[in-house]
Amino acid sequence: MTDKEATIEFLETALDRLEKNESVTYFLVYDTKENARAAVKNIYDMALILKENGYNAKILVEEKEYTGVKGWMGDVYEDLPIVTIKEDNVEIRADDTIVVPEQYSNILPQLANIKCTKIMLLQQKEFMFETLSIGSRWSTYGFDKCITTTEAAKKYILEYFPESLVYIIPPFIGDNFKPSPHPTKPLVGISCRDRAVHRKIISEFYLKFPHLRWVTFRDMVQMGYEEFSDALRECMVSVWIDDESTFGTFPLESMKSGVPVIGKIPDTEPDWLSDNGFWTYDGNKIVDLLGAYIMAWLDGVELEEEVKAKMTEAFLPFNKDNHSVNTLSIFTTLHTKKMESIKKSLEKIKTDEE
Prior knowledge:
This protein has helices spanning 3-19, 38-52, 70-73, 108-111, 151-160, 195-208, 225-233, 249-256, 286-298, 305-315, 320-353, and strands at 24-28, 56-61, 82-84, 97-101, 117-122, 145-148, 165-168, 185-192, 216-219, 235-241, 261-264, 278-280. The chain is an alpha/beta fold. The strands form 2 sheets. Strands 3-2-1-4-5-6-7 form a 7-stranded parallel β-sheet, with helices on both faces. Strands 9-8-10-11-12 form a 5-stranded parallel β-sheet, with helices on both faces. The mean pLDDT is 94.
């Protein structure tokens, strides 16, 4: 067989796999060790949408001991195959696709010579350069496409990697988040990335408002997904501090649960941010805002209708239907372009033969 014949056979096999949806879309995932992570849930959601619509989507992990997401997400993703890089001898073909989160930027050089469709997934803008070799670009390793979650993140990516083709797929807020039919309790749902800040907020509050020591802070981490939504809707208010957040699911989950949010605006302002909560740029004001809110709550002061409307306006676009349409549209476009590219290559080679 000549080189040209081998190339034709290679391309025809790749095209056949694409047409039959046998080509694999791998989503590289890190092990959360059974800790709930919105970023990992979003990856699984994208993979499941593709799987349910006929695509050959798989979760790609490093170690055989990978704990998965069943512990905090239940059986929702049970149909998604999980393959291990080493033990399963994964062979990524030219017609396959691999989606790599920003946490794994350090492995890009290992993927440089693999001729598949390569997509970066940037969910945490602040971690974009954390494991990427200093001064290097994603495109250096063949990653010329990126999926992110906000317009602000897209703008940031294009500022440094203008050669990238950037798509936006925001996560969705599940319908398990809904207002409680019962009166809320004197509970404050608190979510802080930094555990020292978490402890500081609670200590400052009890010292500054000793007459409110009977108010309980509910730590909204290390819960299963359903348990989390059930616990959240019981709260009278939630507190959110996460300077490194790019999208911010917790405030939207709170709003969809009918729970007002008191929060520090992160370094990257979310696209959905407006007068839909009690926001401040100064973390030192959180305790005063919380104290004022609780005193008003005790006096029976209702949340203004305008704020309620803004809360609904914030979470409404981030539903499962929109997420599905968005995900399918982008991956179908990439799939179609890959087939067209292979067909053109085949036509050119066969034309040159004549």
